[in-house]
Amino acid sequence: MMGMNALITFLLSLTWQDVVDVLLCSYIVFRLYILFRGTAVLRVLVGILLLVIVQRCTTFVGLVLTSWAIQGITAAAALIIIVVFRNEIRSILQARNLTAILWGSPVKERRAPITTIVESLRELAHKRCGALLVFPGNNDLSDITHGGEPVDCHISRDTMISVFWPGNPLHDGAAVIQDGRISRAGVVLPVSNRGDLPSCYGTRHRAALGLAERTDALVIAVSEERGSITAAVEGHLVDITDDTHLSRMLEQHLNRTSPSHDEPLRERRRLIAAACASFVLVCITWFSFTRGTDIFMALDIPLEYINRDPLLDIVDASANSVRLHVGGSGSLVKSLSPEQVHVQIDLRNASPGLNTFSISTEQIKLPPGIFVKKIEPASVDVILDVIVQKRLPVQADWVGKLPHRLVIQECTLEPADLLIEGPQQILADTTTLYTEKIPVDTIEQSGTITVPVVLPPSLRLVSGSDRVTVHFTVQSRDTSQEY
For the whole model, what pTM was predicted? Predict the structure, then answer.
């Protein structure tokens, strides 16, 4: 009963952000499995996942050094995937459009890397190397084709050129492309007996046509005499005009081929199992990050005032910041920075004079998974005053000592006064504005200078510039009257 109550309490504590977070990450993990299954990349990703699990376990039991070492190895392994398996990642992403990457349930990787095949065939044609590629359809080829050697290698430009290079014993036969790999090479195909073929078509083209007449396979032939590419499909020979034509033909054939009768059901079960495993894995990871062993830390967060009446201004406050004692999962708390936390005081209903505001959790914005344990202080006093305007005279603030026998005879400022606004109480106690300090030690003759005006805190200039021009007249002192 207590376990059921705990489960209900946990479910009620979930927010919509938590649900979206788990579902989105689950789908990303599932799509990674779909894209990279059957490749070495997926096996390395599984290894990294095991390292992450071990790292979390070592952190939980307090093995600090071991956890740190595994964390470094995991980070390095992520870079290794990108560097070592860049060709595999590129071939997978290039063979699909954006929709196929983000959506859909593709069958087991039957798609050959079309771009690589087209580029390889074009290079073979350019080098006048004869080649014969077979892309099986739904018909069984075992009773029609003969010989050949099992290869089972990844399709790449170098592999294709190596298989059909004249010095290779297998170059005269056909290479069978299945499940995106070269399964066999040196395969002997049945030869067509048609007598209406042009004389430019040799034995290689007749073999391609012979298989296309008996099965639904697509056969691509490269002529070593003419350097041309020809496709045999549905009992006909089609000359390939350009790479786009060849790519479209391969795409249509691979889309038309379908798996065996039982394959869709087995594939569907595998996908459902992978989706469930992705969801469970993400749930465990999410729980360990957000509901794991809680740790606490203290943050000093400045107060933010919102919804202030434009006719009121803040004169004083009992505190400019609050100390928050926050807690949560160790990973979340360690990654928390003060910029992610905000404490806002709503001044919508404030009035002139002293206002006291209580600080509660509703006024604190925190990242998901972080909670507040204690707030210091629990309230803040804010003094507000009405904003008024007042014109104040400006006076030059001289500093230092004039050279001997010199005196400032006259000094005028332009403008002589400025229109200032601010809290009524502060403006009532302010009678004069002063410029910044003006040193007189180096003054030797009359002149003009422009200096800024120093505004007291909470006061603002209504319009115009905060700089004034000081005109001063200097003359020699009459030393005869000193004695």
Answer: 0.40
For residue 122, what are the CA distances in angstroms to 177, 220, 227?
Answer: 17, 12, 9
Domains delineated in the chain: 12-106+268-290 (no CATH), 114-256 (3.40.1700.10), 294-377 (2.170.120.30), 388-482 (2.170.120.40)
Cβ-count burial of 46 within 10 angstroms (0-12 exposed, 13-18 middle, 19+ buried)? Answer: exposed
pLDDT tier at 431, thresholds 50, 70, 90: very high
Instruction: Tell me the C-alpha distance between 384 and 125, whole Å.
Output: 85
**Using only C-alpha atoms, what is the Rg of the chain?**
41
443-480 burial: b if 16+ Cβ within 10 Å, else e: beeeeeeebebebeebbeeeeeeeebebebebeeeeee
Q: What share of the chain is helix, strand, coil (3-state, %, to 5)?
A: 40, 30, 30
Q: How many whole angstroms separate alpha carbon 469 and alpha carbon 446? A: 14
Residue 384 and residue 430: Cα distance in Å, rounded?
18
Nearest alpha carbon to residue 229 among 216, 247, 213, 215: 247
The type of residue at 84 is V
- 197/444 Cα distance (integer angstroms): 110
AA letter at 5? N
Give percent above pLDDT 70 in the chain. Answer: 84
Residues 6+ apart with CB under 8 A from 175: 131, 132, 133, 134, 151, 160, 163, 164, 182, 184, 185, 186, 187
Question: And the tokens for 1?
Answer: 């009963």
The H-assigned helical ranges of 146-242 are 157-163, 203-214
* CA 151 – CA 164 distance, rounded (Å): 13
Cα atoms in the Cβ-side hemisphere of radius 13 Å centred on 263: 11
Sequence-ordered strand ranges (E) for 35-159: 131-135, 146-154
- Contact residues for 345 (Cβ-Cβ < 8 A; gap 6+): 303, 304, 305, 306, 357, 359, 363, 380, 382
Say how far apart CA 96 and CA 101 lie, in whole Å. 7
Q: Are 254 and 218 spatial neighbours (Cβ–Cβ below 8 Å)?
A: no
Average pLDDT, integer, range 417-443: 91
